[in-house]
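Tokens as discussed.
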């Protein structure tokens, strides 16, 4: 997983958040936690802070409020290219739904 980018559906809490944390601990550079609530949960914020304090962990979590059923928005962002939250240079290597 070293230097990989991942997207985790349901990453705001529970099992999705646990999977996102495991990906960062395994070396992922960025893990996008995609879920329906407009803002991340307190649990998500706690996990992000915890990962930031861990020695040797360089990856980060990022929260994205979106519906994963909207595949055009998730995969393309729009009909004109990749979503701005992924960035044009990033490629997703792992998608957990």
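Sequence:
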């Amino acid at each position: 997983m070293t230097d990989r980018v991942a997207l985790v559906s349901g990453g705001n809490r529970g099992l999705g958040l646990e999977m996102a944390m495991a990906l960062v601990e395994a070396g992922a550079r960025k893990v996008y936690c995609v879920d329906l609530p407009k803002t991340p949960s307190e649990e998500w914020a706690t996990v992000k802070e915890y990962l930031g304090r861990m020695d040797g962990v360089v990856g980060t979590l990022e929260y994205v409020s979106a519906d994963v059923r909207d595949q055009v928005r998730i995969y393309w962002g729009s009909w004109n290219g990749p979503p701005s939250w992924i960035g044009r240079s990033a490629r997703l290597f792992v998608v957990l739904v």
